[in-house]
Design brief:
Distance between the termini: 52 Å
Helix content: 25-40%
Number of strands: 23
Strand content: 25-35%
Length: 426
Amino acid sequence: MHFTHEHVSGVQIIFGLDWSPLIGGNPERLGQQRARMMDATHYVLAGSSHGCALGIVRIKESIKSASAPLHSAAAIFSKKFPHGAQACLMRMKEGACWMLVCHAGAVLSYTDRWYADESQALEAIEPIRQRFPALQLHREVMRDDLIWPAWLNAALTEESVLKQIRYSRLGARKWLCLILLFSVSGAATGYHFVYNSDKSNSEIPVNTEHVWRQALREQSAQTVWHAYAQLKAVVDSWMNIPLLPMGWRLTKVQCEPAGLVWNCSARFARQHRLATNSHLEQIKPTGWHVDFSPLEDAAFVWRVEAGVVKLDLDRPWVRMDWMSYLQRVGVAYEHIQIGQTVLSPIKAPTDNQGHPLPKPTVFPDWTQRTLIFKGPLRSFDSLEGFYMPVRWRRVTLNVDRQAPQAINRSVLTFELIGDMFESKAQ
């Protein structure tokens, strides 16, 4: 369901697109392909160098025929608030509520939606808040059709314009007629050329090893992991966080990777009635931001440029008895959890007839499994000798002053969650 609002400039603003993340190069081409596949009439991209999202919608003929361009409300909001996790709840005077969440300028899936009332919108946003503890919420109440939020009434740019999909008006029946027409007209000559082409292609030998090596190297660019030095750069940034800053208490730190950077947040709880937001503003490190929730909670938000390492899928990983290593260091952790082994998703190249080529034995088989560490922050240094490629998904630090003191327990408890890769020779 989408809703149209007329902007002060005379153009139309569209609320309620279907959003999904885009992964890979050339987002413009990928966005057009996906929008056309979903039978949409318009699409728009929202994001930054750290991630991109695609919004699609099917617009009625009456709106499409208007000369003024169409703009996406979600894309406008994401450009106005490009940092961290940002959410908007906009309640109309009739009671309906619009909900939107963006992260690093990219609109999240299952947002940019309308709900019957504000309570339903808050219920839908709660799982997102758990994923992004530093989520900043903007509340708007529309009591007058002529008074809209400042971010929506600002000057518009080309980045929020909905782009029309060409030839999307052709229905399935018209496409079928065109396909049948071309098929019938070229049947006789087509069979002759296809037969000769298949015959000639079957006679051309395929260098299976060369094709597989090229395919693995292309997929290696999309398979990355984090070295210990990169993870340590993230943990070292925690040293700038005060534990008890002037009436506030640190409760949790969480960092998640997004491309070449890590997005981090440190949450504080208000402990003294005289503590104010300005106290945190005075002591925040240079380059960091402060997000405030209603009165009793706040968060430092920052980024760490740690980078990633490409995993060479065409070469086996150095052999290491990693299980024995974890058994030796396990005494310093509250627990170490190892998941079940699953095959890493690798796409096989095809021959001239489109059939998958068998993988030569010179290339290793790759598997992956979930890996979780939980223990005192002082145990983090033991990971320096863990020479296995791991793509970390999240690292957190919990501050619990009631935790018992032991070799594997501490007031500062960190938790790592990631996916470990392992190669096996055939």
